Amino acid sequence: MTDTSDDNLLARVGKQARVSPIWIVPIVALLIGCWLIYDNYTRAGKQITLSMSNAEGIEAGKTKIKVHSVDIGLVEQVKLSEDLGHIQVIARIAPDAQPLLVKDTQLWVVKPRIGLEGISGLNTVISGAYIQLQPGKGHEETDEFTVLDQPPISLNGAGGVHINLIGTVGNALRIGDPVTYQGLRVGRVASATFDPKQRKMQHELFIEQPYDVLITENTRFWTTVGIDLKLDSEGFKASIPTVESLIAGGVSFGHADNRPMGKPVASETTFELYANEEAARQQTYDQYLEYVLLVDDTVRGLSSGAPVEFRGLRVGTVMQVPWKFNSPARKQDFNYAIPVLIHLEPGRLADSGKADLNEWKSRLGIMLKNGLHATLKSGNLLTGSLFVDLNMDKHARKVNYKAQTFEGLPVLPTSATSLAQIEQKLSDLLDKLNKLNVEPVLSGLDKNLQQSEQTLREIRALSQQVNQFVAQPEFQQMPANLNQTMQELRTTIKGLSPESPAYQELSSTLQRLEKVLREVQPLVRTLNEQPNAILFDRKPGNDPLPLAPATP
Prior knowledge:
With about 550 residues, the protein is an alpha/beta fold. The chain has helices at about 5-10, 25-45, 125, 245-250, 275-280, 330-335, 355-370, 420-435, 440-470, 475-495, 500-530; strands at about 45-50, 65, 70-80, 85-95, 105-110, 115, 120, 130-135, 145-150, 160-165, 180, 185-195, 200-210, 220-225, 230, 235-240, 250-255, 270-275, 290-295, 305-310, 315-320, 340-345, 370-380, 385-390, 405, 410.
């Protein structure tokens, strides 16, 4: 039986027992687990978020992130963004590569590509695509990046300068197109965007070192659009770029030949992109004097951009044909002449490309008083294109020049074109011919024709008589008779030759005659001295007395 007394129900007070040693094992295991978790976290590296337009070739757990072909990370997760507009890629970077995760670091997907440089990324056909990381130079860390659709223009952080270009839609360039200087590739097109408000393309160029010093304040940019053939008033021109530019286009730049290069520009400077090299060079001459031509003749063949020349030297450009055609001043004061706006550019004749416009304005004023005028002339017979030729008119010097203006601009006097002058001369000639009294002339010509016909009839009758005479037998025998006569004459002449007997007998007779004459000469001399010597004896002559010797 159980004892239930009060003494037995009293509690006994004693010392509490110590913690059991068995708890040491779980505590140590917990510490080891925490250490392993921390060690695994520190070894796994930093987690980053990548934004991509598409996930082509990207696989979670397989796609790697590389720098200079060294693995520094791995893609862990690929998913859509919350707004479903792009792809989010969760990747983890190795701890030793975490200093590379700065603001200006660039990433792009390396996969097989066919571009201007050839075929690249063929090694990824077997190994699969991977993400290439190009370290930045900044110090601000981040864990969110946007993956580029194309590799960056300046690989490995190459130095250079970035240039902004603004051009029309027709001058649109593509990312990666080459930038050339005198045929040498010096950069690439980094970006191309369209501004719908301004309706212009905005491009960013990257010019590599050491060619960035070529970009100065006087640099002009233009598009390269394959083979450029031009046939205008200045003749035939052909421009053939490099093979790369011929295939893909691109942009070129340069400087005017007679102007200094100027000072280098800072990065992000904005330039205008021109349609071709000629348009870019025309903009080099930004100093000009505006004049208006009021042309009374046709302007067919004259277009904007046509040259203005002075005795063969280009001094300006035609800007607009026609210019303010509906102006009331044209109808009232200028007899419906066609206005043409031109720019005279003195910088074309200056060594430095700069000119004093005030000095040139006064100089042109003097030239206008001395007969300066403009004429439209044909520059190319094939295309019919015209250009403006400035020259001095000697006849205009005698006329007082009167300055005129049209819509606030001075008017440069014009003269008729060469064709118009020829037409005027032909018209004057026809007028003179119409005024001539041609009836007497025609009647005289009629009489002359009648007399000519009569003369022809007489000549025809005479020729018939001659033919009849020639046809007579006597005339036919005349050549034979003449031939016989010539033979007889030849025989006669042969008989008089030195070898003939007649000639020898005649020579002998002459010799005897000469001998007789010598013998008769004394008789003739005696008869001359004394005619009666035949009948009487000849008187003896006195003996000649010798002369006495000379006295000393």
